[in-house]
Amino acid sequence: MKLKMAIVGFRHGHIFDIVARIKKFPDLILVAACEQDEQTRVFVEEKGIVKITHTDYRKMLESVECDIVAIGDCYGKRGEIAIEALKKGRHIISDKPLCTKISEIKEIARIAAEKNLKVGCQLNMRNMAQFIGLRNLIKSGDTGEVHSIIFTGHHPLMIDSRPYWYFQPGMHGGTINDIGIHAIDYILWATGMKFSKINAARSWNAFAKKYPHFRDGAQMMLTMENGCGVLGDVSYFLPDSYGYGLCFYWRFVVYGTGGIAETSATAKNIIFAQAGKKEVSSLQLPASDDGGYLRDFLDDITGATNPEKLKTQDVITASYITLLIQQAGDENKREIDITDLLFTGSSAKL
Questions:
Q1: Statement: residue 240 has pLDDT above 80
Q2: In terms of domains, do 196 and 110 share one?
Q3: Are 106 and 250 contained in the same domain?
Q4: Which domain holds residue 192?
Q5: For the stretch 73-110, what's the b/e string if a residue is b when 16 or more beta carbons lie within 10 angstroms of its beta carbon?
Q6: 287: pLDDT strictly greater than 90
Q7: 3 state SS of 346
Q8: 275-289: burial string, b at 16+ Cβ within 10 Å, e else
Q9: Orientation of helix 181-191 relative to helix 312-331, angle to 10°
């Protein structure tokens, strides 16, 4: 039996990946598509991406039978849409970020647990060959105990071609929340450890002087349960002319008692300097898991998931931690203990 999916919002291009994959998954069928913005509606239909059936998502939820709602609206609108869809008994999957407020992620967690609904997210770093390989290396034990992780998730700002709503107050929700969630989810998955503390975070306006309120700079300092230190920079600082082709676009360096491992989203291998050896190894990449985030979500719905795959509790936990880091950066907060942060089974403690 096919699961019926409806889409709310096409304001960011990432949602088009879900549209394309619906046709490739035999268990999915698209039954409705909603877009409130007229300019976006025209673009979507003229490009033949999908037929827009509704302009009011609440009316769509009332009138259309569906199992899943996929969300691709402006960041600042996603939390409200997610909550309404969950209240109506629909599973949800969203482009990242899932929402922009701590109050929203708490409500999403509460309703999903109460109604036994699943929450998915396009956290596709888990699906990339470089980062599958790095995780495999960590899990093999060859890196030893991990004590430091340094990552950069730099993006080009492309200020004149980004959707205009990015720069509307209240719509973006912060650069840490926008970009950093990928790293937070990945580090939890790759190490199998929890975060224990947000030591510091910073969010500021650097290059985007055209919009003084827009904080394009974003850094964080975190601690994991074994004392491992994490330093991250997810600023919009890449020169536009290079696009996403530089190694600073999702680059991870992992320091363990067994050696140092490094790779990036643009790398052709994994570099490993193993303790006790004199020469640095270049490790071959494994196969990617193309579309894995959507497959994991559907498995979560049917109960076919396993602890290695992305599931509801992972999405909610990563979203909540990232929002806490964003808040720390916005409000200049320091040394926030998150040891007791937990989401397990049918109970959410956030």
A1: yes
A2: no
A3: no
A4: 125-283
A5: bbbbbbbbbbbbbbeeebbbbbbbbbbbbbebbbbbbe
A6: yes
A7: coil
A8: eeeeeeeebebeeeb
A9: 130
Does some domain include residue 334?
Answer: no
**Do 107 and 147 fall within a single domain?**
no
CATH of the domain at 186: 3.30.360.10
pLDDT (tens digit per residue) in 46-91? 999 999 999 999 999 999 999 999 999 999 999 999 999 999 999 9
> Could you please report the per-residue DSSP string of 197-212?
EEEEEEEE-SS-TTST
Give pLDDT tens digits for 86-115.
Answer: 999 999 999 999 999 999 999 999 999 999
CB-side neighbour CA atoms (13 Å) of 290: 6
Per-residue DSSP letters for 128-173? SHHHHHHHHHHHHTTT-SEEEEEEE---B--TTTS-GGGGSTTTS-
Does residue 21 register a pLDDT over 70? yes
Beta strands 195-204 and 217-224: pairing type?
A: antiparallel
Number of folded domains in the chain? 2
One domain for residues 85 and 44: yes
